[in-house]
Design goal:
The chain is built from 6 helices and 5 strands, in the order E-H-E-H-E-H-E-H-E-H-H. Helix 4 links the parallel strand 4 and strand 5. Helices cover about 45% and strands about 15% of the residues. With about 160 residues, the protein is of the alpha/beta class. The protein has a 5-stranded parallel β-sheet with strand order 2-1-3-4-5, with helices on both faces. The chain has one domain: Rossmann fold. The site of 5-O-phosphono-beta-D-ribofuranose has 11 residues, from strand 3.
C-alpha cells in the first residue's frame, strides 16, 4: 500500500457522515490517504503527536473537520507546517455557524484554509487536496481533469431543468 499523502481527521466519530465526502473524493481520484478521529479536546496529546509526525510521515495536506468549538484545524496548524484544510461540521445547536467561525477566524500567522459548512466543504477539501498534489502526481492531475470535464459535460447534457 502507498504511504498516505493526505490525512483526514475529525473531532468525533459523529463527524464521519460529513467527512466521508472528503475521503470519497480522495478515493475517487486515487490519492493515498488515512482517516482517524483526533479530538482537540478529548485527545489533545494525540493531536500534538499527529501534528508533530505529519510532515515526517509524508503527509502533504491534512483535512480536518470539527463541529461546535472546532479547535482541531487551528491547533493542527499551530503545530505543523503541513497545509491544513478546515471543514466546519454542521452542528445541531447553531447549524455549523459556530464551527465555521471557530475555524475561519485564525490569527495572523497561523493559516487554515477554510471550506464551506458540511458535505460541500468536505468534498471540496478533498478536491483541493487533489489540486495541491497534482503537480507532483500526474495520475492525480489526470483524474482531477477528468472529474472536472465529466462534471461540466453532465451539466451541459441536461440544460432543461424540467427534464429528468
Ligand atoms: C466536536 O464536537 C466534534 O468535532 C463534533 O462535531 C462535536 C460533537 O462531538 P460528539 O459529542 O458527537 O462526540 O469536537
Amino acid at each position: 500500500m502507498d504511504k498516505p499523502k493526505v490525512g483526514v481527521v475529525m473531532g468525533s466519530r459523529s463527524d464521519w457522515e460529513t467527512m466521508r465526502h472528503a475521503a470519497e473524493k480522495l478515493e475517487q481520484l486515487g490519492i493515498p490517504h488515512e482517516v482517524a478521529v483526533v479530538s482537540a479536546h478529548r485527545t489533545p496529546d494525540l493531536l500534538f503527536e499527529y501534528a508533530d509526525q505529519a510532515a515526517g510521515r509524508g503527509l502533504r495536506a491534512i483535512i480536518a473537520g470539527a463541529g461546535g468549538a472546532a479547535h482541531l484545524p487551528g491547533m493542527l496548524a499551530a503545530k505543523t507546517a503541513v497545509p491544513v484544510l478546515g471543514v466546519p461540521v454542521q452542528s445541531a445547536a447553531l447549524n455549523g455557524l459556530d464551527s465555521l467561525l471557530s475555524i475561519v477566524q485564525m490569527p495572523t500567522g497561523v493559516p487554515v484554509a477554510t471550506f464551506a459548512i458540511g458535505k460541500a466543504g468536505a468534498a471540496n477539501a478533498g478536491l483541493f487536496a487533489a489540486a495541491l498534489l497534482a503537480p507532483e502526481m500526474p495520475a492525480v492531475a489526470a483524474a482531477l481533469a477528468r472529474f472536472r470535464r465529466e462534471q461540466t459535460d453532465t451539466v451541459l447534457a441536461h440544460p432543461d431543468p424540467r427534464q429528468p
